[in-house]
């Protein structure tokens, strides 16, 4: 069933914090989980929630994103009515690329105005979850809020930096916002997923541009908490926000847990991605694989443990890959040893190479390197 | 718009030699090679050979096949001009005609073919596993100014009597065609792939007032009649992997060929991609208790047991303490704890109860393929009425 909302996805957040890995691509095109790109999660969630109109805002290095999305067919968003809209960067205010979300939204104001839906759903693409937007949308309507923000409860344990932390009143509204916090104790963390009525959003953008405001969270939500009714809706399933290479590594390794995979891939609806038509994975009689996710097109002759192999990876004889993430079409020769390594696409490890990182600092190897 | 060549894919075979596997599906829709269906091979060959118009002739149990082909998008055959068309037999004003044979099926679809007014017609069958560039065969046909060209493959002399055998002169011109001869004169077996000059074919299909009942089959009627009238028929020899997967044994053998890298057509010549309608599933997971050797495994599987020499399709679950060897697990099958499976084909979405024993690993003196056990959905239904436990099926004695 279609729902009364259009979606906007920002494909470019947190590029600075993980520049090595996003040098050649925008955050949305970051490979994840063996066969996906980060944008697949935001896009599939919207499509599975019944949205038929989704705009993706691109900023820089978006060629791989365009290549990945194509016409939007894989997400069933190649439509005569509505469908997938990709907005390459342009700014009507200043010269050059837009600087922040307000400018970006101002740039696509005509898309928002033309939308025939009453509500707009906004998200970044660095949040990995399987969310049905119908629930927060009906919550938003029932609360008669100006904005609804989606948050999750941070459990004690792994520490995160630069998160937005909400204080939430008993009646379900946000009463305080702290930005870029290092979080340690249980708290409510914002996901950068927002729901607004179309007209509220248009007024908000126009007003923000007129007042030369720069940041939606800081200059609008935080400073105008008294004027804005910000409702908060809790997402209770598996969720992971990626702000750094270590976050990225951890989120990948999380997928080795059957519980996480169940929540992410099998619970609400499937996560769609570009189909590549590669052959099934081939295990040689010398293969030993344990606790790993293996994609189509891999050829495994060696040992793989606690790792994720993307499509078309070849592990040579006598090689041992542990705790590593090996992206598409990378190859190892014979007797290669890797431990805590993130190898980007098309990396070649020659025979006998040994690389060892550690759990708090995995080694990253750039796209197309030969070692 | 006129097309130089269009393909007609005969996908209507009953596939009775595949037993229960084709009870609810046409033979070309039988799963193959971890993520494919048999029909993916000729369809992908067409697309890779730049033939963009394919008529798929269906007849028996077409539902699963129709559903699978859909609008042809996975093969890039969702075209405005051409693309893939499903052509079932249909009721006419005076008669309703079930396809009586290969040539008869083509004859009944002449109106479809005429829409594209092709100069050449490529006839394919939907039950072979191979990678072939049809455009080269078409070039050969044009160069030889032939009326018909038949693709042939060299088979061992011992097997030649199973095939239609083409006897040619040195130039490749066919002077004799023998259907399943007792004493074959050559080892050039017909692959069931024909290129016809369309105008010529029309005269032999009996469209122009001839006796219509006798020209139903290419191998039995059309080719011999063309030869007897002195038409130019050439053999185009094909080298490479080719397998007729019309029987359970050959289907199993052809799947097993995939697990050896050197005889594996999927992993060699990877530029010639085989396309398939892909399921939406994450990569497969191999647990710490699992051991997987000499297998191919597809997406979305969850493996906790021991697998040796197997072909595992997408979405298969194999629980702990299981041993599966020399078997094919079709999509979505589920092998529960403690089961042991040897030389078996497990059909789609079939669950095997805990502690079951299937197949036979003992008798090594006969060909393993003769010991094959096929577990279809029906088997499971019957058994589950009684008990979920100890579901035991042993292979029939080798004949």
From TrEMBL, chain A:
Superkingdom of this protein's organism: Bacteria
Assigned keywords, A-Z: Glycogen biosynthesis, Nucleotidyltransferase, Transferase
Chain segments annotated as transmembrane: none
Domain called Nucleotidyl transferase: residue spans: 21-160
Residues annotated as domain Glucose-1-phosphate adenylyltransferase/Bifunctional protein GlmU-like C-terminal hexapeptide: 284-360
GO biological processes: glycogen biosynthetic process
Family the UniProt entry places it in: Belongs to the bacterial/plant glucose-1-phosphate adenylyltransferase family.
PANTHER family named in the record: GLUCOSE-1-PHOSPHATE ADENYLYLTRANSFERASE-RELATED, GLYCOGEN BIOSYNTHESIS PROTEIN GLGD
Protein name, entry field: Glucose-1-phosphate adenylyltransferase subunit GlgD
Lineage summary: Bacteria, Bacillati, Bacillota, Clostridia, Lachnospirales
Gene that this polypeptide is encoded by: glgC_1
TrEMBL record, chain B:
Protein's UniProt keywords contain Magnesium: no
Biological-process GO terms, alphabetical: glycogen biosynthetic process
Keywords: ATP-binding, Carbohydrate metabolism, Glycogen biosynthesis, Glycogen metabolism, Nucleotide-binding, Nucleotidyltransferase, Transferase
InterPro entries linked: ADP-Glc_PPase (IPR011831), ADP_Glu_pyroP_CS (IPR005836), GlgC_bac (IPR023049), GlgDAde_trans (IPR011832), GlmU/GlgC-like_hexapep (IPR056818), NTP_transferase_dom (IPR005835), Nucleotide-diphossugar_trans (IPR029044), Trimer_LpxA-like_sf (IPR011004)
Site (Could play a key role in the communication between the regulatory and the substrate sites): 59, 98
Recorded metabolic or biological pathway in which this protein acts: Glycan biosynthesis; glycogen biosynthesis
Gene3D superfamilies associated with the record: Hexapeptide repeat proteins (2.160.10.10), Spore Coat Polysaccharide Biosynthesis Protein SpsA, Chain A (3.90.550.10)
Catalytic activity from the UniProt record: alpha-D-glucose 1-phosphate + ATP + H(+) = ADP-alpha-D-glucose + diphosphate
Binding site residues for alpha-D-glucose 1-phosphate: 99, 164, 179-180, 190
Location of the Glucose-1-phosphate adenylyltransferase/Bifunctional protein GlmU-like C-terminal hexapeptide domain: 290-362
Entry superkingdom: Bacteria
Presence of keyword DNA damage: no
Coiled-coil residue windows: none
Protein function: Involved in the biosynthesis of ADP-glucose, a building block required for the elongation reactions to produce glycogen. Catalyzes the reaction between ATP and alpha-D-glucose 1-phosphate (G1P) to produce pyrophosphate and ADP-Glc.
Assembly mode: Homotetramer.
Record-stated family: Belongs to the bacterial/plant glucose-1-phosphate adenylyltransferase family.
Official protein name in the record: Glucose-1-phosphate adenylyltransferase
Species the sequence originates in: Anaerocolumna cellulosilytica
Highest classification ranks of the organism: Bacteria, Bacillati, Bacillota, Clostridia, Lachnospirales
Gene: glgC_2
């Amino acid at each position: 069933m279609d729902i009364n909302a259009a979606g906007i996805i920002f494909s470019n957040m947190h590029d600075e914090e993980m520049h090595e890995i996003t040098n050649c691509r925008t955050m949305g095109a970051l490979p994840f989980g063996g066969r996906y790109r980060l944008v697949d999660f935001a896009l599939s969630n919207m499509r599975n929630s019944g949205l038929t109109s989704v705009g993706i805002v691109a900023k820089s290095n978006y060629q791989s994103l365009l290549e990945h999305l194509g016409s939007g067919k894989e997400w069933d968003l190649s439509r005569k009515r509505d469908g997938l809209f990709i907005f390459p960067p342009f700014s009507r205010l200043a010269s050059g690329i837009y600087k922040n979300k307000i400018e970006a939204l101002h740039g696509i104001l005509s898309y928002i105005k033309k939308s025939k839906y009453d509500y707009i759903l906004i998200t970044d693409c660095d949040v990995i979850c399987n969310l049905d937007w119908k629930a927060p949308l009906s919550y938003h309507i029932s609360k008669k809020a100006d904005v609804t923000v989606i948050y999750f409860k941070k459990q004690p344990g792994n520490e995160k930096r630069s998160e937005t932390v909400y204080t939430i009143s008993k009646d379900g509204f946000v009463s305080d916002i702290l930005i870029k916090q290092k979080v340690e104790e249980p708290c409510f963390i914002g996901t950068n997923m927002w729901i607004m009525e179309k007209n509220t959003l248009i007024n908000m953008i126009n007003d923000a541009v007129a007042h030369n405001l720069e940041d939606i969270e800081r200059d609008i939500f935080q400073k105008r908490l008294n004027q804005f009714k910000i409702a908060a809706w809790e997402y209770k399933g598996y969720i992971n926000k990626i702000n750094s290479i270590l976050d990225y590594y951890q989120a990948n390794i999380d997928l080795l847990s059957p519980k996480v995979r169940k929540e992410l891939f099998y619970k609400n609806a499937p996560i769609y991605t570009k189909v590549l038509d590669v052959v099934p994975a081939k295990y040689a009689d010398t293969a030993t694989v344990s606790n790993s996710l293996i994609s189509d097109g891999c050829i495994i002759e060696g040992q793989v443990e606690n790792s994720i192999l993307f499509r078309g990876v070849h592990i040579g004889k006598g090689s041992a890959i542990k705790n590593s993430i090996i992206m598409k079409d990378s190859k190892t020769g014979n007797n290669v040893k890797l431990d805590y390594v993130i190898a980007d696409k098309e990396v070649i490890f020659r025979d006998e190479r040994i690389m060892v990182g550690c759990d708090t600092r995995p080694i990253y190897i750039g796209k197309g390197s030969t070692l | 718009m006129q097309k130089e060549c269009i393909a007609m894919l005969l996908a209507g075979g009953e596939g009775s030699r595949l037993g229960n596997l084709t009870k609810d599906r046409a033979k070309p829709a039988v799963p193959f090679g971890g993520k494919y269906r048999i029909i993916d091979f000729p369809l992908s060959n067409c697309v890779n050979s730049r033939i963009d118009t394919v008529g798929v002739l269906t007849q028996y149990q077409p539902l699963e096949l129709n559903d699978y082909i859909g609008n042809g998008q996975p093969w890039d055959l969702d075209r405005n001009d051409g693309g893939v068309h499903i052509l079932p037999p249909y009721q006419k004003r005076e008669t309703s005609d079930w396809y009586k044979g290969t040539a008869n099926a083509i004859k009944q679809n002449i109106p479809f073919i005429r829409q594209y007014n092709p100069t050449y017609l490529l006839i394919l069958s939907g039950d072979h596993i191979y990678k072939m560039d049809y455009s080269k065969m078409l070039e050969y046909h044009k160069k030889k100014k032939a009326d018909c060209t038949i693709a042939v493959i060299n088979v061992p002399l011992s097997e030649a009597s199973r095939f239609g055998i083409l006897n040619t002169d040195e130039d490749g011109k066919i002077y004799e065609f023998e259907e399943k001869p007792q004493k074959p004169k050559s080892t050039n077996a017909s692959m069931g792939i024909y290129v016809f000059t369309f105008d010529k074919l029309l005269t032999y299909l009996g469209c122009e007032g001839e006796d219509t009942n006798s020209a139903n089959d290419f191998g039995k009627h059309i080719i011999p009649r063309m030869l007897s009238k002195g038409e130019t028929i050439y053999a185009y020899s094909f080298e490479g992997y080719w397998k007729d997967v019309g029987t359970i044994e050959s289907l199993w053998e052809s799947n097993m060929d995939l697990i050896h890298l050197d005889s594996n057509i999927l992993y060699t010549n990877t530029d010639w991609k085989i396309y398939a309608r892909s399921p939406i599933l994450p990569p497969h997971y191999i647990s710490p208790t699992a051991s997987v050797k000499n297998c191919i495994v597809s997406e979305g599987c969850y493996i906790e047991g021991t697998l040796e020499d197997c072909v595992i399709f997408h979405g298969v679950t194999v629980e702990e303490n299981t041993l599966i060897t020399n078997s094919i697990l079709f999509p979505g099958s589920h092998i529960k704890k403690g089961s042991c499976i040897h030389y078996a084909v497990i059909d789609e979405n079939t669950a095997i109860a805990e502690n079951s024993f299937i197949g036979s690993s003992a008798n090594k003196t006969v060909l393993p393929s003769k010991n094959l056990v096929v577990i279809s959905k029906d088997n499971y239904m019957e058994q589950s009425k009684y008990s979920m436990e100890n579901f035991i099926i042993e292979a029939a004695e080798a004949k």
